[in-house]
Amino acid sequence: MSTAIAESRKTVSGTKPATPSRNGGTYLFLTVMAVLWLVPFVWTLYTSLRPKSVTDAHGYWSFGGGITFSNFEVAWKSGFEKYLLNSAMITIPAVFFAILLASFVAFAVSRFSWRFNITVLVLFTAGNLLPPQILATPIYQMYKHLVLPLSFADSGSLLDTYYGVIIINVAFQVGFCTFVLSNYMKALPSDLGEAALMDGASVWRQYWAIIMPLCRPALAALATLEVIWVYNDFFWALLLMQTGSRLPITTAINNLKGEFVSNYNLIAAGAMITVIPTLVIYLVLQRQFVAGLTLGSTKG
Questions:
Q1: d(CA 105, CA 124)
Q2: Where do transmembrane segments lie in this chain (predicted)?
Q3: For residues 233 and 57, what is the distance between their CA atoms, to the nearest angstrom?
Q4: Nearest to residue 226, comparing CAs of 170, 186, 294, 273?
Q5: Using an 8 Å Cβ cutoff, are 284 and 103 in contact?
Q6: What is the DSSP letter of 78?
């Protein structure tokens, strides 16, 4: 009886069960990849805990010589508290406005049928394919020649301001957020909008009181991904910020380089401090993070 049931299940599913040898190969591949990913992190952590005098004498690829936390102390006292605050001042508004603007566009292209909704969605999605490096020069020149009052920006332009880094992060992240949210909103029943329209609900009320509450799982997953991505950004702050004290923490690691000699133990300690907020966010919001990675593939 059990054999017949097993055969019938095999016939229905049309797939063969994974063999032990196939599972073994998969586990071996995953183990090798995990080791390859962990070796740089573990070695950076180990380097951050070693005195510079030991690594100067025996090289960085060596063992022994004692463990010390002095590198972390020196890195933190170099202003990392201020750099963490700078990262928060850039990351929080950038993520908020990117998701807010993306939700407007996603609502318009997914819940209403109009002439250019597909065109607009394609334009926003295509923006994700542009590498930031090819736009570096025109964006830098635009920021440089955009004159602003000194009461708004002490540099007289968008260069060397938090506004400039926030704006460029919003611009580059809103395309991905629009793509994800539009797919999620398309999966919601169209009857919701029609019923609300029959009850006299305005477009804004449909957006704010009906659609957005239903998008909370997608918004939570998206916000988790965006916080990590914007926080980890290194390129735009390095290009657009000129004052060292205004740099976010990921870019400020460059300030740990000495004028004549580079202390890589100190830089490794600074990198480990930089990882801590991202690691905490991932551990606290792990479920939303994993959901965010599969959000665009399971909806729509």
A1: 9
A2: 27-46, 88-109, 116-141, 161-181, 207-231, 264-285
A3: 34
A4: 170
A5: no
A6: I
Three-state SS sequence of 68-96? CCHHHHHHHHHHHHHHHHHHHHHHHHHHH
Q: Can you tell me whether residue 25 is helix, strand or coil?
A: helix
- Global confidence as pTM: 0.80
How far apart are alpha carbons 145 and 207 in whole angstroms? 38
153 near 161, Cβ under 8 Å? Answer: yes
> What is each CA distance from 224 to 3, 6, 85, 101, 285, in whole angstroms?
47, 42, 18, 17, 7
Of 71, 79, 74, the residue nearest 50 (C-alpha): 71
Q: Where are the domains of the chain?
A: 41-294
Residue 103: CB atoms within 10 Å? 24
CA distances from 293 to 24, 81, 209, 246 (A): 26, 31, 27, 31
Rounded Cα–Cα distance for residues 139 and 146 (Å): 11
Query: What is the distance between the alpha carbons of residues 51 and 125, in angstroms, rounded to a whole number?
Result: 48
pLDDT digits (tens, 9 = 90+) for 79-116: 888 999 999 999 999 999 999 999 999 999 888 888 88
Q: How many CA atoms lie within 13 A of 95 on its CB side?
A: 21
Topology of 41-294 in CATH? Answer: MetI-like fold (1.10.3720)
Residue 134: DSSP 8-state: G
The amino acid occupying position 139 is: I
Cα dist. 204→49, 175, 180, 186, 196 in Å?
Answer: 55, 22, 21, 17, 11
Amino acid symbol at 42: V
